[in-house]
């Protein structure tokens, strides 16, 4: 009875938010195509090992034209009481003064203890209400479920979870992943709220292998790009890149009748006071999701439908990724050129390869019957601001599709 009541209340709440966003639309807007929403699903704050207050981080992203955010701190949902001590270093002291000046002493709860400044962090309820703006800026509940197996770091984000998930551990890397993934799927089933687990940075200390990801059941997302400086997106002489992993996972998933794995770009930002390739800064990688309403439910469902692309700078005007055809149109910048590559695998072959390259601002690729799956990657001639590794140019990745039968 109690479960039913919670489920009903949550369902009603989601419906109310969706309706209230919808009601404000004019008739023309309702008939207009779906909108693009920019968001980052992987962010850290003072609630774990990030070095800034949630409100400051969220306001920064808001000012950079993001419409949704998830603060995914390690093993916390930011819903209890937590005090932090501001580090001695002047940049953090200055950061606190800026926080106090911007939000005011009525908002900021702090005290001086033995000469050190201690600050009470705002909870998810508090910070999300402070920064959210209906239909314009949304903060999604999230957690980075942070687990280990021996010396391997096994991190998995859970977007739009409603209740904290404790890392469950397990008997192998793959088993730990499956256990934590199952907890998210179970919570989804129990609450009726759409939520998604996604695998974080597999190459972080080379913790998660291709075979580990291939063995999973029920995982639909992983980070093809993560903006942290230690995650080795590109691999090295003995480890393959995340992008290479992506296609190999999907070859296996298709053979085993599993849904395709989608690739996310995220910041995994921790450092908000020092900038450069040695720091995990904000603004490096994001997703653009196409949907009609800015609600957590609509965004999760659109992600699951593959109605999104991942980006480190390249912006698309249109993306049609259905019915045996991938068609992209870039929103070009002056003086910048673009290489549009269609990557995929043909039946009977064991690895993905480039199927077509177009040097233009728009291109189309038709999936013929001999193709197993295909996706599109765009590389710009524009250098990315503040890149990591050797990923120097702005890019975008669309999601793979299979030919429809
Ligand atoms: Zn992590
Ligand atoms: Zn992280």
Q: What's the short version?
A:
Helices cover 26% and strands 29% of the residues. By secondary structure, it is of the alpha+beta class. One zinc ion (ZN) binds at residues 144, 155, 200-201.
Walkthrough of the structure:
By secondary structure, the protein is of the alpha+beta class. The chain has helices spanning 2-23, 27-31, 54-63, 90-103, 124-131, 173-191, 210-214, 242-255, 296-304, and strands spanning 35-40, 68-70, 83-85, 109-113, 116-120, 138-140, 142-149, 152-159, 196-199, 221-226, 262-266, 286-291, 308-311, 316-322, 325-330, 338-346, 353-358, 362-366, 371-383, 393-398. 26% of the residues lie in helices and 29% in strands. Strand 16 (338-346) and strand 17 form a beta hairpin. Helix 3 runs parallel beside helix 5 (124-131). It starts with a helix and ends in a 7-residue tail after the last strand. Mean pLDDT is 93; it is low at 1-20. One zinc ion (ZN) is lined by residues 42, 44, 144, 200, 268.
